[in-house]
TrEMBL record:
Record PROSITE patterns: TYROSINASE_1, TYROSINASE_2
Keyword terms of this UniProt record: Copper, Metal-binding, Signal
Coiled-coil region: none
UniProt xrefs under InterPro entries: Di-copper_centre_dom_sf, DUF7868, FG-GAP, Integrin_alpha_N, Tyrosinase/Hemocyanin, Tyrosinase_Cu-bd
Domain annotation Tyrosinase copper-binding: ranges: 430-447, 572-583
Source species: Catenuloplanes atrovinosus
Entry protein name: Tyrosinase copper-binding domain-containing protein
GO function terms (MF aspect): metal ion binding; oxidoreductase activity
Amino acid sequence: MIDLTGDGRADIVGFGEDGVHTALATGGGGFAAPRRALAEFGYAAGWRVDRHPRLFADVTGDGRPDLVAFGDDGVAVARGNGDGTFAPSRLVVPDLGYTAGGWRVERNPRFAVDLTGDGRADLVGFGDDGVVTALGNGDGTFTAPRLVLADLAVEAGGWTVERHPRFVTDLTGDGRADIVGFGNEGVVVAQGNGDGTFAPPKLVLPAFGFDAGGWRTTRHVRLLADVTGDGRPDIVGFGEDGVWVALNDGAGGFGPARRVLDDFAIGAGGWLPDRHPRLLADVTGDGRADVVGFGDTGVRIARSNGDGTFAAPVLALTGFGYRAGEWRTDRHPRFAVDLTGDRRADLAGSGEDGVWTAPNAGDGTFRSVRVRRDAWDLPVWDPALLSYARAVRAMQSRPISDPTSWAYQAAMHGRSGSTPSGADWNLCQHGSWHFLPWHRGYLYFFEQIVRAEVIRQGGPADWALPYWDYSTPARAALPPAFRERTLPDGTPNPLFVAQRAAGLNAGGRLPASATGSATAMRTTVFTPDFGGGRTGPQHFFNAYGELEFTPHNDVHSLIGGLMGDPNQAALDPIFWLHHANVDRLWTVWLRQGGGRADPADAAWRNQSWAFRDASGNRVTITTGAMLDPGRDLGYVYQDGVGAPAALESMATFAAVPAAEPELVGASDRPVDLAGRATAVDVPVDARAATESAGAPRALLNLEDIVADANPELVYEVFVRPLGAPRAVPHYVGNVSFFGIEHNGPRGDTPHGFRRTFDISDWVAAQGAAVPGAAVSFRPVALAAPEQDGEPAVPPVRVGRVSIFYAQ
């Protein structure tokens, strides 16, 4: 793992069958979707771990790591582009390779380090006859290799890989790398001269050697790291009876070796090299390396005291261990690297089923990161889904007075009738900039309650709430586990709910216009465009963001039944997967960059919310304490799956204009929507029509929308020029009515529901004065509603359809 982009966060690099693959860190302990970054250096091209070392180092001095590969024919370099990809490689040294020079992994260690202090990596190899170097030219090429030291090699001094570890690092702080070797008699140092050569080796410490102390590579790990914070590497050895340290003296040598900790060793704790990796990394951010050990029961940390000693080890995480997770050194590499950019080491490991991370908690411990996975990527009764079903059934059996019950948790979102004293009911935030953070906290604590029940029943301890990514047609049907009437044991399936739209439980798919998020993703500011307008805490208000409109409201309405009513929606188990997807789309929006960011306003970040934890206790959390799910809450989403693609049919979204818009046209009558296609004309007055040729900003408003109930339909909205009946209608977006009962005179807001569409591009495309728009509404649903005299769907009245212009 290495930082490929310069953002201070370690990224994943893997050498696969077909080349180099990378996955960039996203900052919360997660990674973007893996991608092939270079179609070279893969297994299919003949590259092998036991023949061809592949390293990363900055060979040009531009601050970006490049790929240095020692192949059959010599050294090849692929320069880093700074974005996780690499330029095509070129052979730069026809030597130091398996065929070109006869170099072998088991005999000849090779390094890429700065020998001259110019900030560019040079090559160092321990050949059979001695030390060979090739200086970097600054353009990704190197000078011809030359033998600079007839020592520290197999045939020159008897140095072997299986007995004598060698390191190339800057011992003195002069920016030039020196050689540190652990020989038979102890520690040998050859100081760099700054020109690619080295001073003659000298024995600086009669310890840590094959004969000087009986140190063996098969039993005793030796590392170099700065444990005091002075910027110079010290020796840390995991010996037979504990941890030994020799401090750097600043002059190219080391002080005496001393045992500082009776742990992390074969004879002190039972630590074995083939079972228990031990690393040195700064886990506190104080600039001093701490001991990180992957033991039987998990990860143990011994924090540096700054004087070459360490505090007593503590169990920092029950995971990544030989027994705690079944991690094996020959199958599961583990790392201690900074994944978040806070200069504190986090944990990462490539496990049996994927990459696992544990972000640093800031106190010398780590948070296990759970992965929320797409339900469509899981088998029908994967343990994540089966455990969820069984936990739901257990929660449904609890009385509503129990805060961990299914009914109580649903009532926190909404419930008809009065709220008992002390109950945290009817708290959901809609039509407000608080919509996304409130629901994030709601899901997080609900997930805790479910996980506690999953564990109680013997399910996976790392259970995480799945999500439903419905953005593609193949996945727009309910995941199969929610359509099965019974569980595998034949008992009723609590994930199946009969009160859903006709056809949905039979595999019907939601329409594409209702499940896409492209319009929301094109917004660039959180408030009011993406996440909603600025309000105080508000159960329901009228400041909806684009993400809440589509897909959130649309999916609620089309699933219908319990999901169509805010006071019952959370009783349907699919509610929680739907909202997990909405929460995921928030992270996807931020990941796009381009200035996208969460609000900095203290009124938003400091807003506190009350929820119930796994024990039923009331807990509070602020919005600002849960903005980074991986770091703050310990979960990330399955990476790269369902990242929303822009749908060609979607209208371009433009930010709300700074100038006050001017009303230029309005319908002369209300529009009644009753499950059938309908239309209304919106004429623009002559003066405004003339001015429209200047390509103003144009907004289409649906105002004062009222209804007694959600019709559980979505209407696609189209415009065409007034007086041009043969013109192709232009799709501008959707309107749906989740929560409409809370708007209007009988609801939480004094006015009706409203929806605004940006039609600037359509107006500009007309190329002449626009006389007005014929606005049409087309209902979309899983199945056409039946008509039997009276309309089968509750009618909705749009009080006025209007057009505003603004410069």
